[in-house]
Write a structure and sequence with these properties.
The complex is a heterotrimer of chains A (285), B (336) and C (312). Chain B is mainly alpha-helical. Chain B is 77% helix and 0% strand. Chain B has 15 helices and no strands. The radius of gyration of chain C is 28 Å and the shape is globular. The chains are: A alpha/beta (285), B mainly alpha (336), C alpha/beta (312). Chains B and C meet through helix 3, helix 8 and helix 9 of B and helix 2, helix 5 and helix 6 of C.
Chain lengths: 285, 336, 312
């Protein structure tokens, strides 16, 4: 999806036609996970999971710590090889797709790492254009600069473009990583806890941005620890419990007192907000 | 912003080339024997056979060429390895390359290889030693699929120590005449009578420069971390292997011909990173030129400081390089 | 070569869409081609003049000589060829006239530029001289003759004769050797019948170094009427315990300055050694012993003979 055609976050948008893809088939499915088992070393963290994500969906992955959410994101992105089962993106197995090809279709925003590369914000975002370059291309083309600028505008960090990454606050850094992912012009966006360690202002900003991007046919799979954000913004939720799929469905179906109390081994209240007809979670004092 | 970056980079490259040319001219002009440089052009055309011609073009110029090739080669090996390992203390010798090369040369001396292969025995044995050790370190470090960088580094350092001890063992039991040969080789020198070797190293060094430039963008991505680089479409494992190979062969060749000249591969990448930034597209080119200029300059100083005697060039690179390194690290705002 | 080459180079600079790879290859190829031809413009001569440089008998005696061995410098003066010397090492201290000559480096490491500037006809080198530098000098067309360290007096004389033949002073050499041999005979007659003293020669401290069987110092001691207690070992590193065990009558310290004095004190701690008991520990000038000419050899032998056979 060409970024230039995307509008800024707070405007209404028109849905765009499905992007023309050379390699990916015309199927409705963006991600198909078949019987996936994966883990680190000898340990199996995710046990025989199967689910699908349609094109244009906004899916939230939730579950207690250690339930395998990050592992699934790594498996989908191809960074972690499955021990059993397969992951298909757009109908084609990851193992059969070239690295660069995948990177032009799928972007990943990991949890902000500690390493501070010696780049400015603009240079950093421009790195997101690398998957689109040929082997012998060394300099950014005009199109690359344009796309990067648009990505920075979308995430609202244009004013930071000359600053070094190391100088930014946590929230600003997270937005920068998001901007780089957007500069890749992906069809699928994976995010691992993008709102962790951020203040409520930034949390809302990011979720609203994701929502508007999703309205323009960007498929999004996001790992969230905050059940309320997941309930408010995601169209479908996948609840994991100790590496197994506990429940998949709309927030109404997944966020119930019974299920949440069981999986998280705690006691919470679930109330539905009548104005927006969404479930909200309240801890019991 | 885009065009200003390109013009900044062009500006840097141009200035560095000018500095390099200046250093070359300085090196040609200066030496134990006084030679007025304005005669140089005259000598080039008419002066063949005179001592001045010989000194300028058959003694100083080959050293300058070798300094160019080795200075540049070691510098970009340093850039590659520091970018790959994301560690500011990594330099071409950390992985045991220098130890291996020195050990190879010692073995050659003990086994008397020079009798069979003549003067090529030392560089060949040095190269085989270097590459052998690197291969050994790699095989052990790459166990369990994929290259684990921290493990590679640790093994490299250990192997270096082992090699040093073995070398001391060999030195303790050899004859005096061979002993001094080993010591001088280890101290490093740009004196190389075999012009084939000089040309070979230059060719390999420039080739390495071109090859690593093809990976400049990958190195940029790698500096973000392996997982991020992976997500940007870089074939991380394959790229690491290839970069490792380039850096090892480059260093191995340099060390095989000139012995162990330290600090170039450590200091030059650092200082250039301070000056031109961490983007490998400019960093590689700038480091190559700066490394070449640095080594030629140090060699010139080594030749004249206590003329007619010569200091080993490693002494000068150590003192000057070390000093610059400490200064660079003490500056505020330095982030790797 | 020029015209089509430049055309080729400019061709590869035309930027075409979609043929990035081909451009790259072309530029690489052009570069490689350029580089190879560039390097040929500066092809350095690498063949030494083997035949004429290696034969010992030559028609014209070398008039400008650089000596990289202190002993050779001294020998050249013995042969009345001191005026032909144009360059020496900083260690060439004897005879005193040698100190005025131009210095070109040390025994191990020399300055090639200085040597070239002096335009020598002959360079005398030792096995200690840097091999790479010898090859470089030969590659530049200069004549370099290497003289190995002599193993005994006979070898020393042979070496001396060879040198004289190279510089065309054979007759003078034979004269000097005649006189030297007569003097040596005199020394031998002087100590005829005296018991042979058992000697330990120390030429290095830390680690303790002695003259092994391959060293000509063995010969020196023989002629002086002594026996080297380390004459049967083939490496110079020796242990002090071994010296105590072998119990020499005389300890000879070949000095290198104050180290000699300190070593003397150290030996006095081992009171069981005969040499210590009789206070027969002597120091000898290292220059005399380690850089011999036939003449200095005999002088040193005479001095040693006196030390070994002094009436207590």
């Amino acid at each position: 999806m060409p970024l230039a055609e995307r509008d800024t976050p707070f405007e209404d948008s028109k849905t765009c036609p499905c992007p023309k893809t050379k390699i990916f088939s015309e199927s409705l499915w963006m991600i198909k996970i078949n019987n996936l088992s994966c883990g680190y070393g000898k340990e199996v963290v995710v046990k025989e999971i199967s689910f699908e994500v349609k094109k244009g969906e906004f899916v939230g992955l939730i579950g207690p710590n250690g339930s395998g959410k990050t592992t699934i994101i790594r498996a989908i992105s191809g960074f972690l090889l499955p021990k059993k089962g397969a992951v298909l993106i757009g109908g084609k197995a990851i193992s059969a797709t070239g690295r660069k090809e995948l990177a032009t279709k799928m972007a990943v925003v990991t949890q902000s790492p500690e390493a501070t590369p010696p780049f400015s914000v603009e240079e950093f975002v421009l790195l997101g254009r690398v998957p689109h370059w040929t082997r012998f291309q060394f300099l950014e083309a005009g199109k690359d600069v344009e796309t990067a600028e648009k990505a920075m505008a979308l995430t609202g960090i244009s004013r930071l473009k000359g600053r070094k990454i190391g100088e930014l606050s946590g929230g600003e850094r997270q937005l920068t990583y998001l901007a780089r992912a957007l500069a890749q012009e992906p069809d699928l966006l994976l995010l691992d806890e993008p709102t962790a360690h951020l203040d409520i202002g930034h949390q809302v900003r990011i979720m609203r941005l994701l929502e508007s991007l999703n309205k323009e046919a960007l498929t999004i799979v996001v790992v969230l620890h905050d059940l309320n954000l997941a309930s408010l913004y995601c169209r479908r939720l996948v609840l994991l419990d100790k590496g197994k799929l506990r429940k998949v469905g709309r927030p109404k179906e997944v966020i119930t007192e019974e299920i949440i109390n069981e999986v998280y081994e705690t006691s919470i209240l679930v109330k539905e907000d009548p104005d927006i007809s969404r479930r909200l979670v309240f801890p019991v004092h | 912003m885009q065009s200003s970056r390109i013009s900044t980079w062009t500006g840097w490259t141009f200035s560095l080339i000018v500095i390099l040319l200046g250093v070359v001219v300085f090196s040609l002009a200066v030496g134990a024997v006084d030679l007025p440089l304005r005669k140089a052009f005259f000598l080039l055309t008419k002066g063949q056979g005179t001592p001045e011609y010989t000194i300028l073009f058959e003694v100083r110029l080959p050293r300058i060429l070798l300094g160019f090739a080795v200075g540049g080669g070691l510098a970009i090996s340093g850039v590659i390895l520091q970018g790959m390992f994301r560690n500011p203390l990594v330099e071409p010798y950390t992985l045991g390359i220098s130890g291996g090369a020195a050990l190879g040369v010692c073995m050659n001396m003990v086994a008397g290889g020079s009798r069979i292969l003549g003067p090529l025995a030392t560089p060949i044995s040095g190269f085989l030693g270097a590459v052998g050790v690197v291969f050994f370190v790699y095989v052990i470090g790459a166990r369990g699929g994929g290259i684990r960088l921290s493990r590679l580094l640790l093994i490299g350092v250990m192997v270096s120590f082992m090699a040093s001890s073995l070398i001391m063992l060999v030195m303790a039991v050899t004859k005096t005449e061979d002993l001094h040969g080993i010591i001088f080789w280890i101290m490093g020198s740009l004196e190389e009578p075999n012009s084939f070797l000089t040309r070979a190293v230059t060719f390999i060094s420039l080739g390495g420069m071109v090859l690593s430039f093809l990976f400049a963008v990958d190195l940029n991505a790698l500096s973000l971390g392996e997982e991020d680089a992976f997500h940007l479409g870089v074939e991380v494992e394959r790229t690491k292997k290839f970069l490792f190979l380039i850096a090892s062969i480059l260093t191995g060749c340099c060390v095989a011909v000139t012995g162990i000249i330290g600090f170039v591969g450590l200091v030059v990448p650092h200082v250039m990173r301070l000056l031109v930034g961490g983007d490998h597209r400019i960093l590689l080119v700038a480091s190559y030129i700066a490394g070449a200029a640095f080594l030629i300059l140090c060699d010139t100083l080594a030749r004249v400081v206590i003329a007619p005697m010569e200091l080993p060039v490693g002494v000068i690179t150590g003192l000057v390089g070390g000093g610059v390194f400490v200064y660079a690290l003490s500056r505020k705002g330095y982030s790797f | 070569m020029e015209c089509p080459f430049w055309k080729f180079l400019t061709l590869s600079w035309k930027k075409k869409e979609g043929s990035g790879k081909k451009d790259m290859l072309r530029t690489l190829f052009a570069f490689a081609f350029f580089f190879v031809s560039f390097s040929h413009a500066f092809s350095f001569p690498s063949k030494a003049q083997d035949d004429s440089g290696r034969s010992l008998e030559i028609l014209q005696a070398p008039g400008r000589i650089i000596s990289l061995i202190p002993a050779a410098t001294e020998q050249l003066y013995l042969l009345d060829a001191g005026d032909r010397i144009v360059g020496v090492t900083i260690y060439c201290q004897r005879p005193s006239q040698a100190q005025t000559k131009e210095k070109v480096g040390t025994v191990i490491d020399v300055n090639i530029e200085k040597i070239i500037e002096l335009r020598p006809d002959l360079i005398i080198a030792s096995p200690l001289t840097d091999h790479k530098q010898i090859r470089k000098l030969r590659g530049l067309g200069l004549r370099v003759e290497t003289f190995d360290a002599p193993k005994d007096f006979h070898g020393l004389c042979e070496s001396f004769l060879t040198l004289s033949r190279i510089i065309g002073k054979k007759r003078k050499a034979e004269e000097v050797l005649e006189r030297t041999k007569r003097k040596l005979e005199a020394v031998r007659e002087g100590i005829e019948g005296d018991a042979k003293a058992r000697v330990f020669v120390q030429i290095g401290a830390n680690p303790l170094f002695t003259a092994d069987e391959g060293s000509f110092i063995n010969d020196l001691i023989e002629y002086a009427g002594g026996i080297n207690i380390a004459g049967d070992v083939n490496t110079g590193i020796f242990s002090r315990e071994e010296v105590i065990k072998r119990n020499p009558d005389i300890i000879l310290i070949v000095t290198m300055g104050i180290i000699g004095e300190r070593e003397k004190e150290t030996w006095f701690r081992y009171k069981t050694i005969s040499a210590v008991k009789n206070r027969r520990i002597f120091t000898v000038d290292s220059y005399r012993v380690c850089s011999p000419t036939p003449v200095s050899f005999v002088e040193t032998a005479k001095e040693m003979a006196r030390m070994f056979h002094a009436k207590q």
